[in-house]
Amino acid sequence: MHNLHKDDFLTTMHRTGSWVLKVCGSEHGIPHYHLLTPSGRAVVSITDGTILAGAAPGKALSEAQAWSTKHSAELLAEWRRLNPTL
């Protein structure tokens, strides 16, 4: 898989030099991932790439959205694994 690091509550799905994409457990709401950059954080919908909270620099956001579009089934499966009761 892709630089995957799993534990019971958090999975780092992808990491580059400028951003990290994580899926967290014990979450609420719609399936989403957390995008972390040196200058911002955003919560982004897995299904359509909409920013649900926060902000991230344009280049990091567009790269993460492109990666997540390509790997949406994988992201959704991991979100469901970590959040089985939602």
Biggest β-sheet description: 6 strands, antiparallel
Secondary-structure element pattern, one letter each = EEEEEEHH
Strand order of the largest sheet: 1-2-3-4-5-6
By secondary-structure content and strand pairing, the structural class works out as alpha+beta
Mean pLDDT, to the nearest integer, reads 89
Low-confidence stretches: none
Report the end-to-end length measured between terminal Cα atoms.
Answer: 25 Å
Helix count? 2
- Beta strand count: 6
Counting structural domains, the number is: 1
Envelope shape: globular
Radius of gyration: 12 Å
Percent of residues in beta strands: 25-35%
* Helix percent band: 25-40%
Description:
The chain has a six-stranded antiparallel beta sheet with strand order 1-2-3-4-5-6, with helices on one face. By secondary structure, it is of the alpha+beta class. It has helices at residues 58-70, 72-82, and strands at 5-6, 10-15, 20-24, 32-37, 40-45, 51-55. It is globular and about 35 Å long. It has one domain.
Short description:
The protein is 28% helix and 35% strand. With 86 residues, it is α+β, with helices and mostly antiparallel strands. It has one domain.
What attributes does this structure have?
86 residues; globular; 6-stranded antiparallel beta sheet; alpha+beta
